Amino acid sequence: MSKPLLTEFNSSSELPEDLPEEILFILDRFEKNHKRSYLVGGSVRDLLLGKAISDYDITTPATPEEVKKIFSDFIVLDTGLQHGTVTLLIDNKPFEITTFRTDGKYSDHRRPNNVELTTSLYEDSQRRDFTINQLAYNPTEGLVDYHNGLADLKAKLVRAVGDPYKRFNEDALRIIRALRFGAQLNFNVEENTFAAVKDMINDLDFVAAERLTHELSKILNSDFLSDNWQNLMVLWNYLFPHYACEIYRSLNVDFLENLPKNHNINLTILTYFLTNEDLSHFLDKIKLKRLDSGLIKSYVSALHEVAESHGVEGIEAIGEIGKIGGQEMDFETKSKMNIEERNFFSPLDLVHLKNKYKLDLPTFIEVLDLIVLEPKYGISPHTIEEIKASFSEILEKQLPLSTLELAITGKDLINLGFSQGKAVGNVLDVLLHKTIQGELENKEESLLSAAKAMLS
């Protein structure tokens, strides 16, 4: 973690020791060319907070053409000329440089119809989303703060620059970004800004699903998700049916602190109470990756089974997810979920697909591309050829294609000590999977030995 750029938010112009050499070099060269430029945005905010920095953005009065001349001995890429942005490469490291600008009208709630370049840092600051993100820094001048961002940083507030309704109407993504910064930094959203969030939450309909999902993922991976759960209710009310949100409102989510930073697991918490129809609708709405969507459905199904086996339901059942990351996770959850490793189209999935279509293996191999090339499966032709090769090997080695073909039965597992019901089916599925993968021989002794290991 970096030390704070300005101790206790003083306006000292002392050169920070932990700015990268490349940043100091860029700012110095601009200065020598009479184009005072600034580090701006999230990097300044995070330096003040002592957080690690991943990206440094520089804003300048120089036009893109002037930037190219000033750095003519380097590669400068045209990465966003329509917005006054170029990317400077120094030792193959990219540094985004954007000319001061003002934004024109927004007609799509996403991007300005046009931008105008300016030489005024103040005018540039007025277009930015939140006061804590408009802070600018230059080694000679020190910190520049036109909108009291330092005060909001100290008060731990996310406040829109100017009128929050205008800011959110310009770019609806800012609505969820306000909530995301609150969860990531453990800040409160300022009263007027939060009122605009609540009033305009449905404008998230204008946001592309991919952008919405990206922000949602950041929220679910944030360090202060449980602390900000109630503030996020406005978002849950937008995303989920009313009946689920009433449960979320009274949910004790302290156990979230003990979970791995995995947005799929946290999405499972949010979707646990949904009906299958509502779950499918939600996952389609946010256009989750096919693999992630399959994982979440698997997680939810597994949790329902765990809840049933423990004789709990409703809010009590969701507490079982707290065991996901630890040693106490029971077999049903472990075998169903395989937290980081489960492949959405594992050999076992394909065996189930074959059995669903009631085809013998040679016929299934022939028509496989007709089945899984459907868009809903998201399988590439290259992957299909690999799958066909795997199934040809299964055919050649005469491996089992269903649990009925295993050398042991559910009765054998019950005799070992497994309880009757879904647990037995889960074990048989795992044994079948391992046999198909070549990890086990389809022999009674080998299968029983593996089952005993699971039981312990």
TrEMBL record:
InterPro entries on file: Bact_CCA-adding_enz_type3_sf, CCA-adding_enz_C, NT_sf, PolA_pol_head_dom, PolyA_RNA-bd
Domain CCA-adding enzyme C-terminal: 397-450
Short name of one Pfam family: PolyA_pol
Cofactor(s) of this protein: Mg(2+)
Domain of life: Bacteria
Gene Ontology biological process terms in this record: tRNA processing
Domain tRNA nucleotidyltransferase/poly(A) polymerase RNA and SrmB- binding: 186-243
Record-annotated Poly A polymerase head domain positions: 38-159
GO molecular function: metal ion binding; nucleotide binding; nucleotidyltransferase activity; tRNA binding
Keywords associated with the record: Magnesium, Metal-binding, Nucleotide-binding, Nucleotidyltransferase, RNA-binding, Transferase, tRNA processing
Family under the similarity heading: Belongs to the tRNA nucleotidyltransferase/poly(A) polymerase family.
PANTHER family: CCA TRNA NUCLEOTIDYLTRANSFERASE 1, MITOCHONDRIAL
UniProt xrefs under NCBIfam families: PRK13299.1
Protein name: CCA tRNA nucleotidyltransferase
Organism of provenance: Fastidiosipila sanguinis
Lineage of origin: Bacteria, Bacillati, Bacillota, Clostridia, Eubacteriales
